[in-house]
Amino acid sequence: MGPLVAAGITAGAVLAVVGLPPVDLHGPWHYLGVMGPLCGGTRGVHAMLLGRLDEAWRYNPLSLVLVPGAVLALVRETVGRVSGRWLNLRVTHRRAALLLALLPLTALTVNQQAHADLLRTGPESGMPTGLLLYAAAAPLIVIVLAVRLRSRRRADPS
């Protein structure tokens, strides 16, 4: 997870310096008026990295947790690689943890839908780039899932 987090922090730093991308990266549901829990996330992280906490909260409250969480994950990765000792968290009651995670996720989804007018604003490129990216990524996702399923079947001795 370390390289992914490092790439995310780097991308966030680039966004903070260069600004938001001038393309529409929304998913398919966005065009139907459905705001998911990640809607406004890019603008929220951008605002967070610029120190505009109230703006980050308005776009997506999750951004206030995401940026510090990414920094902590990167610190964990660095300490683990240097010392060979890793801080791990073991969840023993998975159903309870899942239910506890679903509560704030549901609240965030409701919050984002309530702010649909704010979240619908963005680059007016005319081209829904997000839909093109989803269409391009779909075959790749199917291939990756097929390869993983096949490798699991080969690894299973039964």
Overall number of domains: 2
- Give the strand content: under 5%
Order of helices and strands: HHHHHHH
> What percentage of residues falls in helices of 4 or more residues?
55-70%
Average pLDDT level? 84
How many H/I helical runs?
A: 7
Shape: globular
- Low-confidence stretches are none
- How many strands in all? 0
Structural class: mainly alpha
Rg, Å, rounded: 19 Å
**Could you give a short account of the major beta sheet?**
none
Which assembly state applies to the chains in this document?
single chain
> Cα distance, first to last residue?
31 Å
Features:
single chain; 2 domains; 68% helix; 7 helices; globular; 158 residues; mainly alpha
Report on this model:
- The structure is a single chain.
- By secondary structure, the chain is an all-alpha fold.
- The protein folds into two domains: 2-124, no CATH class; 128-158.
- Helix content is 68%, strand content 0%.
- It contains seven helices and no strands.
- The chain has helices at residues 2-18, 41-49, 53-59, 63-83, 94-114, 116-120, 129-155.
- Helix 1 (2-18) crosses helix 2 (41-49), helix 2 (41-49) packs antiparallel against helix 3 and helix 2 packs across helix 4.
- The longest helix has 27 residues, at 129-155.
- The radius of gyration is 19 Å and the shape is globular.
- The two termini are 31 Å apart.
